[in-house]
Amino acid sequence: MNIIICIKQVPDTAEVRINPETNTLIREGVPSIINPYDLHAIEAALKIKEKTGARVTVITMGPPQAEDALREAISMGADDVRLISDRAFAGADTWATSYALYKAIEKLGYDIILCGKQAIDGDTAQVGPEVAEFLNIPHIAYIRKIEDVSDKSIKVQRLMDEGYDVVESPLPVLLTVVKELNTPRLPSLKGKMAAKKAVITRMDLNAIGAEAENVGLKGSPTQVKNIFAPQSKADRKMFQGSVEEQVDALVGELRGVKCV
Amino acid sequence: MRIAVNIERCTGCGQCIDSCPFTAIVMQEGKAFINEYCQFCRACMSICPEGAIIEIMEEGDIQKADISDYKGVWVFAEQRDGMVASVAYELLGAGRRLADKLKAELSAVLFGSTEDQAKELIRWGADKVYHCKDSIFEKFNDEPYSQLLTNLVKTHKPEIVLAGATPIGRSFIPRVAARVRTGLTADCTALEIDGDSGNLLQIRPAFGGNIMATILCPNHRPQMATVRPRVMKRGEYNADRNGEIIPVSADNITSRTKVLETIKEVSECMVNLQEADVIVAGGRGLGKPDGFKMLEELAEVLNGAVGASRAAVDEGWIPYSHQVGQTGKTVCPKIYIACGISGAVQHLVGMQSSDIIIAINKNPEAPIFNVATYGIVGDVYEVVPLLIKKFKEAKQ
Ligand SMILES: Cc1cc2nc3c(=O)[nH]c(=O)nc-3n(C[C@H](O)[C@H](O)[C@H](O)COP(=O)(O)OP(=O)(O)OC[C@H]3O[C@@H](n4cnc5c(N)ncnc54)[C@H](O)[C@@H]3O)c2cc1C
Asked: For residue A163, what pLDDT band results from cuts at 50, 70 and 90?
């Protein structure tokens, strides 16, 4: 069995802020990390590997620096990695990202593909389902538990708004995972050594066999027009005086509101 | 297109390096250089004091698909157990506004469910409803949903397609966008029509809510977006409104996945938080678990529910099911009372679309005051008991 995990290197967004005056991001010293959800995807694959002897390959599309993320994946126990990297891939939206991943995955062979629920920078949660559509295989999103897996099929719990569904799918299938699924392991010493020594294979536009007009900025239907800070309310009212006076003023203001 | 540095103008001040969310700018021989990490967000362009960072158009940048044939606004009306989900009515409110602006028709698409529910969609503003009653849609499976919506989009060519950013919409709508080769904007919180181009301006939070972005899909159609629930306002309900219901068949629609079981796990509190008109929420500023007893009392007086920030949940003062924010619930009550909540962006994204936000905090600099409608600077243990007393009096 072949398992492929798609991971993304992201800035640690908990530390990204925007300067409200200039509408630009402040990111002094914000570190790059593996997208946290993707660690759970790697862990899920390693668990399946322990049970079935599957081969685990981790791939990422990104700039040369994304190699660091792949080395971290090796240190956790991945058998193989691929860096999908080419200047032509830069500026991809989810359509163009998924297209490039699909082309690469087709070359690699797969039974199960695992993705994180969403990347914490782009936050779209679209890449997994789009890759599945390009590959013409089923997908199940927001997996919180894998109940059963065999060579032919998989049974999982899918998180929904009001609880969860138990869903079955034949293989090959793509799954996107949430954090409740498992606790990602820490790299082992042996893993760290392997990661250091590993030669990272790179796949460029030619290697994945994609057309230039379908990848990167050119292949992307969406454009980020601008970015800005979350708005603050202009009409806010700060009450003055003692606490009792402030409370009275508030109760007075709310008198007209129906639900009070 | 590329974002590049005009090295003649660049003074090597390095301000752009800090502004880049993707670590895409490095210093080379005293000049800024933009590498392939660049995501074209243009953050650096506005910060460069020398105006040295520019956009360069390249041949083949503009690939116009034929977009003039695409007309009308569509809302995908999600159903659960046969009942249309409330986000669909919110989308009809938003969709009606966009359609009127474009002088176009508003259509709803309903898979599964009943004719009665299809009629409801018309009363909430739809001119047409494409309705497929087939039992394959009873339970949610991605493939049949995406196959049929893809077919309908390809046949009828709408200009805009909206769906709820729910587990269902966010799961299958990307497949439709991939198949019809168009853009999809995720989890929008505002939608406008650009006056000049007629393009849909899709506004959404990214980076965990730390920033907002405006996304365009200028050269492909339809323009597709998932929209966050409880953000858009419903339109007018009109029981006498007429519209057309167009039956759609599910020929050749298949599913490889199969839902074996559906388990509901709704705690009472979750329901309360999403339905409540008033939410009284507490944060780290409460200082101790007992603070929530006081908030419960206030919530009771106001017939509301109790929410919490992540800090309070992490402290173990109140269960996770009460958590509001990025990693908890998104709520949109008429009144949100934030007690001792500092207002980290991760919390704000979950509640800032509430109609009225009342912030109570000791620290006048707390960011929660930036989104507040009314602010009281003071100790929650002084303010809240007084509020309870005064609201009780006012009620009598
Ligand atoms: C502010 C901002 C807003 C944006 N909004 C949109 C938008 O609304 N629509 C849109 O189409 N694009 C948007 N983009 C572009 C989008 O961020 C990129 O396309 C990105 O490459 C993938 O999307 P994501 O980060 O949302 O990933 P998600 O779709 O959230 O990622 C889900 C999973 O897919 C896998 N994955 C994602 N990226 C990669 C990768 N490069 N390599 C390997 N696996 C990967 C991972 O398993 C990940 O957990 C936006 C970008 C910015 C900067």
From this structure: confident
Chain A positions touching B262 (Cβ under 8 A) are 160, 163-166
Instruction: Give the residue-averaged pLDDT of A128-150.
Output: 97
Cβ B205 vs Cβ B240: under 8 Å = no
Percent of chain B residues past pLDDT 70, beyond the cut: 96
Measured between CB atoms, does A25 come within 8 Å of chain B? yes
**B44 to chain A: which residues are within 8 Å by CB?**
24
Q: Is a pLDDT exceeding 70 seen at residue A258?
A: no
What pLDDT sits at residue B267? 61
Predicted TM-score (pTM) of this structure:
0.83
Tell whether A152 is within 8 A of chain B (Cβ): no
Which residues, 6+ apart, have CB-to-CB distance to A179 below 8 Å?
A36, A37, A40, A117
Closest CA to A127 of A68, A60, A179, A212: A60
Superfamily assignment of A2-214 in CATH?
A: HUPs (3.40.50.620)
Q: Which of A250, A251, A253 to mutate to test the interface with B (most CBs of B within 10 A)?
A: A250
CA of A59 to the centre of ligand 1 (A): 15
Minimal Cβ distance to B183: which of A222, A227, A237: A222
Measured at the CA of B280, the angle between CA B275 and CA B282, to 5 degrees, comes to 130
Under 8 Å between Cβ of A59 and A45? no
DSSP state of B135: G
Residue A145 touches partner B, C-beta closer than 8 Å: no
Residue A136 near chain B (CB below 8 Å): no
Query: Which chain B residue shows the shortest CA-CA distance from A33?
Result: B22
Contact A203, A141 (CB under 8 A): no
Closest approach of B143 to chain A, Cα-based (Å): 7
Give residue A24's pLDDT: 61
For B144, name the nearest residue in chain A, comparing CA atoms only: A138
Low-confidence ranges of chain B (pLDDT < 70): 58-65, 266-271
**ipTM for the whole complex:** 0.90
Q: Angle at Cα B364 formed by Cα B363 and Cα B368, nearest 5°?
A: 85
pLDDT at A233 over 60: no
All structural domains of chain B with their residue ranges: 2-56, 73-247, 273-395
Q: Which CATH number fits domain B273-395: 3.20.20.80, 3.40.50.1220, 3.40.190.10, 3.30.230.20?
A: 3.40.50.1220
> Is the pLDDT confidence value at A188 over 90?
yes
